[in-house]
Write a structure and sequence with these properties.
32% of the residues lie in helices and 29% in strands. By secondary structure, the chain is an alpha/beta fold. The protein has 2 domains: 210 residues, P-loop containing nucleotide triphosphate hydrolases (Rossmann fold, 3-Layer(aba) Sandwich); 63 residues, Lrp/AsnC effector binding domain/regulation of amino acid metabolism (RAM) domain (Alpha-Beta Plaits, 2-Layer Sandwich), CATH 3.30.70.920. Helix 4 packs antiparallel against helix 5. It is elongated and about 75 Å long.
Length: 300
């Protein structure tokens, strides 16, 4: 069952800036990873889902409610963590948490207190004096404390140390098991790989890849790092049918990517050369992502 639906959504600012004919879905109990470089259209898409922006064409809906015309109803079901958090500076973290709790008419603060303890957060200080990481923890508490059915998380671990990033990943995995639907934008590839069921890559406002995370791990292509005892052996291999992705002449190593069907051909080619070592390099989301941006300078 689709909880979040984006259908041919378009909002253009220039001919290359905005989102164009963009479609995606997030199903119940699914974590959808949304990745792309800065300026690719991630935040613009999220603003449409929150009802902050009116589309020029197409539609965004959550729980079959139109995100623009029925935004008030949509907001009741959401937990949202923005990429850039702007808190009222004259409040303490606890004042803000209690204020939002009252707005949402929560019966108790049990979930909020659990999250405060879990993230080792001291919310008593003024928000204006808090570090980026501490503010991020306050934002996480505010996004999750009312047990929302749907979570929209934009760069959720910015500013968190590795230990707290791991705590956050565990939290997302637990929420998924409860049947929550989560759309998460992140520049941390390991975070996306360890939490998301499907991943959409956006480039210049268009979805260019939409696949299950397991497809990346189980790709029919394999990457191997091969080291040679002598540079002359490496030169012989470089002249063969396999074109290296990377070459390190200093250590005598090449990295190649081949289809499974060519493994015997590779072994035959290596059988006549003095090989020091050969190991498989596991496929990763980062490698898959950067494959769409070869030769381009990107900021993620």
């Amino acid at each position: 069952m689709s909880i979040i639906q984006v259908e041919k959504l378009t909002k253009s600012f220039t001919t290359t800036k905005g989102i164009f004919n963009l479609s995606l879905t997030v199903n119940q109990g699914e974590v959808f990873g949304f990745i792309g470089p800065n300026g690719a259209g991630k935040t613009t898409t999220i603003r449409h889902l929150l009802g902050f922006t009116k589309p020029q064409s197409g539609k965004a809906s959550i729980l079959n409610l139109d995100c623009w015309s029925q935004s008030q109803q949509v907001q009741r079901h959401l937990g949202y963590l923005p990429a850039e958090i702007a808190f009222p500076e004259n409040m303490t973290g606890m004042h803000l948490i209690r204020y939002l709790s009252d707005l949402r008419k929560l019966r108790n603060m049990k979930k909020a207190e659990e999250l405060i303890h879990r993230f080792e957060l001291d919310p008593s200080g003024k928000l204006s004096r808090m570090s980026k990481g501490t503010k991020q923890k306050v934002g996480i508490v505010c996004a999750f404390m009312h047990d929302p059915e749907i979570l929209i998380l934009d760069e959720p671990t910015t500013g968190l140390d590795p230990l707290m990033q791991a705590v956050f990943i565990n939290l997302v995995q637990e929420e998924k098991l409860k049947g929550r639907s989560i759309l998460m934008s992140s520049h941390v590839f390991e975070e996306i790989e360890s939490t998301c069921d499907r991943i959409g890559i956006i480039k210049q406002g268009r979805i260019i890849s939409n696949m299950r995370t397991e497809e990346i791990r189980n790709s029919s292509k394999r990457t191997y790092a091969i080291e040679f005892f002598e540079r002359t052996d490496m030169a012989l291999f470089e002249n063969d049918a396999f074109k290296p992705k990377e070459v390190d002449s200093e250590v005598g190593r090449v990295v190649i990517e081949i289809e499974d069907s060519k493994i015997n051909e590779l072994l035959r080619a290596l059988s006549t050369i003095n090989v020091k070592s050969m190991r498989e390099v596991p496929s990763s989301l980062e490698e898959h992502f950067r494959g769409y941006y070869k030769g381009e300078q990107i900021d993620v």
